[in-house]
């Protein structure tokens, strides 16, 4: 009874943690969106859409630790199932998680292929003052229809794409895993939904390679290096103002006798006057920053920022080393490209794959670590997007700036983060494949032992960590894993994407090390839309 009561308490604690996590997600999304949206151009619908889509992405990522917790909770550490975990109960738990994924993934498809594009095109049309609301809605629906068609095609292709994969020497192991896919995919149209989500995850992988990999190096190094001194920047800016005023005076002196200026001098005068306006604007902002109490407070926190920067770079190196070892393991010991580089057991141990099983002994440390990893990926992705901006090939579309981000840019930002969070589940699988697949489950194996007292052999059941060799009725695979590996070609693309991720991180680390300190008012030179009554956005 005591054991049963402790198990029930553990389950209640798990669900309470998940409930608190949901509240924290909603609060975080609201604060983050409000922090970056423009004070002058904020729109209620775009704000709600951004908060909702970002929250859905984070809630979906929160299902991963819940999925792992539930499959682990059904078994004791000695490898036996708990008394209440019979076949029907286990199936109900698996179906509950599966329906949770169905619901959230369906909402994600709705957001990506209908609601976010509709709101984006609606506000694009709103920029034209002579356009009526009816015309705005019609135009937005017309452009959104293209996204709906793409979604329908993905669902259609996913429903009929062939899953048969030629077997190689690993046929016994591969057949076992493939049978799980076929069992899961034979009901409720999972193939169509899984194909659509995998397509979005593939786009998320490209976004993660671009933004997350760079952010993992840029965020800690920016914290360590800090920003330039406001007083020193004011001194430089004052010298620049004097130099520009001298150039303007020199050009104007040429027309003192009434002679008109040549066209080249007129163009130069106009450029110098524009430059002078920008420098005077910088002067006002720098003066505000230098005298701000927030600047003094941040200066007092400088040692703490350095400590956080060192911590983040160590965490980044831990992730990179774990990802490198995991990819090497797949390259050397996986079932090959035609199975999506599925690996049966961990042959090369990596730090995270060893750490998570150790933390499982103290509930709920492993789930807290998984949550921290997810949040770390999100924060580094945000840092990467802020540093790089939103581009379409070589064309810069939007910049993400605190307190000055336009509604359309905010929608782009949340869609990119949503796609990156979708890819986060596969990143965590790459870092700790056995943990994501089976959690902390053990199963019993029969071992022959020889007794000295009794001449002969006897068998002893000993627990062993679940892996691909375990009987299907002894270990329950997480629904997350089956979603990730239903289509082998997506898994193969993710594998090569991990190598690209490592390469971009290395390049980003070199670039971040070579770059100097950021200006305390980074962006004023480029932002012609900044009004003089908005200096406070730099002090935050």
UniProtKB/TrEMBL annotation:
<keyword id="KW-0458">Lysosome</keyword>
<feature type="transmembrane region" description="Helical">
    <location>
        <begin position="306"/>
        <end position="325"/>
    </location>
</feature>
<feature type="transmembrane region" description="Helical">
    <location>
        <begin position="45"/>
        <end position="66"/>
    </location>
</feature>
<dbReference type="GO" id="GO:0140318">
    <property type="term" value="F:protein transporter activity"/>
</dbReference>
<dbReference type="GO" id="GO:0005158">
    <property type="term" value="F:insulin receptor binding"/>
</dbReference>
<dbReference type="GO" id="GO:0072583">
    <property type="term" value="P:clathrin-dependent endocytosis"/>
</dbReference>
<dbReference type="GO" id="GO:0007369">
    <property type="term" value="P:gastrulation"/>
</dbReference>
<dbReference type="GO" id="GO:0005765">
    <property type="term" value="C:lysosomal membrane"/>
</dbReference>
<feature type="transmembrane region" description="Helical">
    <location>
        <begin position="487"/>
        <end position="511"/>
    </location>
</feature>
<dbReference type="GO" id="GO:0061462">
    <property type="term" value="P:protein localization to lysosome"/>
</dbReference>
<feature type="transmembrane region" description="Helical">
    <location>
        <begin position="367"/>
        <end position="397"/>
    </location>
</feature>
<dbReference type="GO" id="GO:0035612">
    <property type="term" value="F:AP-2 adaptor complex binding"/>
</dbReference>
<keyword id="KW-0812">Transmembrane</keyword>
<comment type="subunit">
    <text>Interacts with ABCD4; this interaction induces the translocation of ABCD4 from the endoplasmic reticulum to the lysosome. Interacts with ABCD4 and MMACHC; this interaction ensures the transport of cobalamin from the lysosome to the cytoplasm. Interacts with INSR, adapter protein complex 2 and clathrin heavy chain.</text>
</comment>
<dbReference type="Pfam" id="PF04791">
    <property type="entry name" value="LMBR1"/>
</dbReference>
<protein>
    <recommendedName>
        <fullName>Lysosomal cobalamin transport escort protein LMBD1</fullName>
    </recommendedName>
</protein>
<keyword id="KW-0306">Gastrulation</keyword>
<keyword id="KW-0472">Membrane</keyword>
<dbReference type="GO" id="GO:0005886">
    <property type="term" value="C:plasma membrane"/>
</dbReference>
<dbReference type="GO" id="GO:0032050">
    <property type="term" value="F:clathrin heavy chain binding"/>
</dbReference>
<feature type="transmembrane region" description="Helical">
    <location>
        <begin position="143"/>
        <end position="163"/>
    </location>
</feature>
<keyword id="KW-0813">Transport</keyword>
<dbReference type="InterPro" id="IPR050854">
    <property type="entry name" value="LMBD1_LysCbl_Transport"/>
</dbReference>
<feature type="transmembrane region" description="Helical">
    <location>
        <begin position="99"/>
        <end position="123"/>
    </location>
</feature>
<feature type="transmembrane region" description="Helical">
    <location>
        <begin position="190"/>
        <end position="214"/>
    </location>
</feature>
<dbReference type="GO" id="GO:0005789">
    <property type="term" value="C:endoplasmic reticulum membrane"/>
</dbReference>
<keyword id="KW-0170">Cobalt</keyword>
<dbReference type="InterPro" id="IPR006876">
    <property type="entry name" value="LMBR1-like_membr_prot"/>
</dbReference>
<feature type="transmembrane region" description="Helical">
    <location>
        <begin position="409"/>
        <end position="429"/>
    </location>
</feature>
<dbReference type="GO" id="GO:0031419">
    <property type="term" value="F:cobalamin binding"/>
</dbReference>
<feature type="transmembrane region" description="Helical">
    <location>
        <begin position="12"/>
        <end position="33"/>
    </location>
</feature>
<keyword id="KW-1133">Transmembrane helix</keyword>
<comment type="similarity">
    <text>Belongs to the LIMR family. LMBRD1 subfamily.</text>
</comment>
<dbReference type="GO" id="GO:0038016">
    <property type="term" value="P:insulin receptor internalization"/>
</dbReference>
<keyword id="KW-0217">Developmental protein</keyword>
<dbReference type="GO" id="GO:0045334">
    <property type="term" value="C:clathrin-coated endocytic vesicle"/>
</dbReference>
<keyword id="KW-0846">Cobalamin</keyword>
């Amino acid at each position: 009874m005591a054991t049963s009561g402790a198990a029930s308490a553990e389950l209640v604690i798990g669900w309470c943690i998940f409930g608190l996590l949901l509240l924290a997600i909603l609060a975080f999304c609201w604060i983050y969106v409000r922090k970056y949206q423009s004070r002058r151009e904020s729109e209620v619908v775009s704000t709600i859409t951004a908060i909702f889509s970002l929250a859905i992405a984070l809630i979906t990522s929160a299902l991963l630790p819940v999925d792992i917790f539930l499959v682990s909770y059904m078994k004791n550490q000695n490898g036996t199932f708990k008394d209440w975990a019979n076949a029907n109960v286990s199936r109900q738990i698996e179906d509950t998680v599966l329906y949770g994924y169905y619901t959230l993934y369906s909402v994600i498809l709705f957001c990506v292929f209908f609601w976010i594009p509709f709101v984006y095109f609606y506000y694009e049309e709103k920029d034209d003052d002579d356009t009526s609301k009816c015309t705005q809605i019609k135009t937005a629906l017309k452009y959104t229809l293209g996204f709906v068609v793409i979604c329908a095609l993905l669902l259609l292709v996913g429903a009929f794409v062939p899953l048969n994969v030629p077997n190689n020497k690993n046929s016994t192991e591969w057949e076992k895993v493939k049978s799980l896919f076929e069992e899961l995919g034979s009901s409720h149209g999972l193939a169509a939904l899984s194909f659509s989500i995998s397509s979005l995850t593939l786009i998320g992988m490209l976004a993660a390679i671009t933004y997350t990999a760079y952010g993992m190096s840029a965020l800690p190094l920016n914290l360590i290096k800090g920003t330039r001194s406001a007083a020193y920047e004011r001194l430089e800016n004052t010298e620049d103002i004097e130099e520009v005023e001298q150039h303007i005076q020199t050009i104007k002196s040429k027309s003192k006798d009434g002679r008109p200026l040549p066209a080249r001098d007129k163009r130069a005068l106009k450029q110098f006057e524009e430059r002078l306006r920008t420098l005077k604007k910088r002067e006002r902002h720098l003066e505000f920053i230098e005298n701000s109490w927030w600047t003094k407070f941040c200066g007092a926190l400088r040692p703490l920022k350095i400590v956080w920067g060192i911590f983040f770079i160590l965490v980044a190196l831990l992730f990179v080393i774990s990802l490198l070892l995991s990819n090497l393991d797949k390259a050397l010991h996986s079932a090959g490209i035609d199975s999506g580089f599925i690996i049966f057991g961990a042959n090369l141990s990596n730090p995270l794959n060893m750490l998570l099983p150790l933390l499982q002994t103290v509930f709920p440390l492993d789930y807290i670590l998984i949550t921290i990893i997810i949040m770390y990926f999100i924060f580094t992705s945000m840092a990467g997007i802020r540093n790089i901006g939103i581009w379409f090939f070589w064309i810069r579309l939007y910049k993400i700036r605190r307190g000055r981000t336009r509604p359309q840019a905010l929608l782009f930002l949340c869609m990119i983060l949503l796609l990156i969070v979708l890819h986060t589940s596969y990143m965590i699988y790459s870092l700790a494949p056995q943990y994501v697949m089976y959690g902390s489950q053990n199963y019993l194996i029969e071992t022959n032992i020889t007794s000295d007292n009794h001449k002969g052999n006897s068998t002893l059941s000993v627990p062993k960590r679940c892996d691909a060799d375990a009987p299907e009725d002894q270990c329950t695979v997480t629904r997350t894993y089956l979603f990730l590996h239903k289509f082998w070609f997506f898994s193969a693309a993710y594998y090569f994407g991990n190598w690209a991720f490592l390469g971009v991180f290395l390049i980003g680390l070199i670039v971040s090390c070579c770059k100097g300190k950021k200006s305390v008012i980074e962006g004023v030179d480029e932002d012609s839309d900044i009004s003089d009554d908005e200096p406070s956005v730099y002090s935050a």
